[in-house]
Amino acid sequence: MKQYDIVIIGGGPAGLAAAISAKNAGVSDIMILERDESLGGILNQCIHNGFGLHTFKEELTGPEYAARFIAKAQEMEIPYKLGAMVLSVSPEKVITYMNKQEGLVQISAKAIILAMGCRERPRGALNIPGFRPAGIYSAGTAQRLMNIEGYSVGKEVVILGSGDIGLIMARRMTLEGANVKVVAELMPYSGGLKRNIVQCLNDFNIPLKLSHTVVGIDGEKRITGVTIAEVDANRQPIPGTEIHYDCDTLLLSCGLIPENELTREIGVEMNRVTSGPNVDDKLQTGVEGVFACGNVLHVHDLVDHVSSEAALAGENAAAYVLAKAETESAHKVTLKAENGVRYTVPQTIDVANMRDSVTVRFRVADIYHNRSIAVYYGDKKVMSRKKRVLAPGEMEQVLLKKDSFKDYPDITEITIRTEEA
Amino acid sequence: METKNLTCIGCPMGCALTVTIDGDEITVTGNTCTVGANYAKKEVTNPTRVVTSSVRVCGAAIARVSVKTATDIPKNKIFDCMAEIREITVNAPVSIGDVIIEDCAGTGVKVVATKNVAAK
Amino acid sequence: MIGSRYDAVIIGGGAVGSAIARELSRYELSVCLLEKEEDVCSGTSKANSAIAHAGFDAKPGTKKAEFNVKGNAMMDTLASELEFEFKRNGSVVLCFADEDMPKLAELYQKGIQNGVEGLEIVSGDTLRQREPNISDEVVAALVAPTGGIVCPFGMTIALAENAADNGVEFRFNTAVTDIRKHDDGYTVVTNCGEIETKTVINAAGVYSDVIHNMVSEKKLHITPRKGDYCLLDKEAGDHVSYTVFQLPGKYGKGILVSPTVHGNLLLGPTAVDVEDKDNTATTAAELADVVKKSAVSVKNIPYRLTITSFSGVRAHEDGDDFVIGEAADAPGFFDAAGIESPGLTSAPAIGVYLAECVAEKLGAEKKANFNPKRRGFVKLAEKSFEERAALIKENPLYGVIVCRCMNISEGEIVDAIKRTLGATSLDGVKRRVHQGMGRCQAGFCTSKTMEILSRDTGIPLEKICKNSAGSEMLSHKM
To answer: What is the pTM of this model?
Structure first.
């Protein structure tokens, strides 16, 4: 069985950034396994702009952003396999994959970086009642059909969910001549970025109905219409508020779910909020030498954050392989999310062996105005940052410096919470 | 004097901007950086957008190559620009930055490829 | 072929019609099956509880009781001959209150009368030892070890393929609009022309009353009875091992909780009489009912793992029993009408019985060269490492995964399209090899599957349908 130093599962933005930084950190024996026929992952179909403002200080489209990382990986001669579907990963780090050329192959790795990304929540998981005709697509599926395959999925469109892909597709379909009638959002706020509401909906006078959901789907063969209704505080439809729209297409943009089937198989501890694995400050999962980054770890808002997180995972995996990582005198501190902070990544920090600083990423549970994000070491508040607006659609972060723990030798818990400013 | 409330689209922060127009005098508040001020001034005088789309590509493993306007174009030219983009078919190979349309819809702005597409 | 004369025309390509076709193909007869949709298994047979009922539920002496027990007994042989998925996981009926015990005993007695083997009544604690997630409220249960689970698509498609391999002609997208009776047979009028035949077998599901009433003065009336279901991800598939029923009692009509042969967990059905025979729309109220009532039987069902919900319409005849046999006032016209639950289980036995009736009527001999075997689908995901490696070597398309959730390869999809009565639609592929049936519900693999379908059938991509004409997936080429 061939053994690699590092095997990276997934050749999207996370996998590529992890590979590049692992190689920069001194490990050359790397293999990227990508299930699709090209590197770049979902960015290949995200032809809109808005990527790379943090990473490259300029605004790129998805394919352009991906191309920069692909070019870099190729220039560094990092090996990869396309059309390679990983079927299983064992706790002993044996990976079974298959592709057309090699058939079924088993390899092993000293370290594994999980970078499988996420998938869209399908209609079934939303339990939308009604018929099950053709013409109901998750927004990403429609995006692929339009932008890669060159087929339009419909002309009269209703969109459920105001996640960014839904907003982007509202504009994309409008530009291609479709009539996007309404975007309905179950929550009282949009899950997408504000800029996308402006340039994808407002620019084209597409109404966004917050606190609304689809309560009926008509059409036995192809969808002919949907009924949406307002929902109450418990997200239950309010009788009498139904509005019918004739349409031939319903797009769903109702959330993303990390693709963690392989992760579960390894047996690592999972997080119920993120649906990703729990990781420490090295982005290492509960199984030593198995790291995770990007949307498989938690769903990100910006690819730039994916890239920086993945670079860290790559560096740490390299350090693990080169046995540079100090594992003695571990002082593990648990991060606790509370009062409006839904989760944190990482979930633990080894303050004895951490880098000079650790970025803790998280999301909030609701829209908050003029609140602070506070960090407590034990019960002592050590940091507080006032924010004009906090929104669930946007990832927040705090930077914890190693120095800051000097005065807390017995710390066991860090709490991150929102507070009235 | 006229006041308009805008959301900046310059970056994902989406700052809430207030623009005050007093004759030729335009003042912007609420912005975190110069991008916001510039955006707001443009938005109330000559709003512009970058258009991204895709065109047919022949002789490649995929059917479409993605494109964008090299810079932002006037908002009211978006659909004219799209009409021209829809008519285009290119042959593989295509490289990022290749000019697909020299002057799109009379804006003087190029449409360029945003994806590398190899010939089959 | 329109214009020629058949010995038998079967109307309807569901489980019952396909079973009749397969049994008729044992005889020296020219047989044609008409199906209004683009594929077999497109009506009631595609959306039901996927259960091989033991047979304790039907009233003794009824056709339901007779065919249920006979059909159940045929399942093992049939599943091995035709290579479809079937498992005797056993069924249990839960009793929640001491005062309902006589009803449980009554059910047991009915089972004995119907000839169901192996029945026993156990205490709630005994059941919970075997099945830990059973509700603590359960005081006793009837256990029926012969109860089973079956893939309704797998069975129906296998029966149809085997029938086709043995000479039955299948015509899809062919809807019967009228039937004219003659002295020596029938003219079946369809949207695709007229067909002459000596006999007609009516297996038209919820439309079997309409078909019957075209030739008979003794009218049938079928009420479409709709049932909603929820299907949970494989992660929840071993939540129970038995098919768990509820004793009709203080909780009203029961909802079952069952594993499926594909490893999912199935909850349902509701039972609501509807006007429209094609009303397969789920409703919020019914789906909520499924959740509420399933929670009565089984603890801690992980509802968040729901991957889809669906609805099926059962053909409930006013007489509350199957209508099987030659119509009194229409010689040579045979009914398999009002086939509601336990129809899937009964289908193989109904097939045998009606084929015998038709053969006797026409004085047909058995074929010498009938082949009872049919090659099942290659299920790569269930193969060992070595078997799988060997298959990929033989056909590299088995090494290309299209559906990530179910691990379905391009090779399996190509087989689904190219075999006898191959798939022509996305639903057709899905029902054969379960592409897109997983947790992402075809989010990732829809476009690739459409491409393969288009490539291997020659149907242009923009004409690829979810099921029959009118369900086109795409609007236009850009």
So the answer is: 0.93
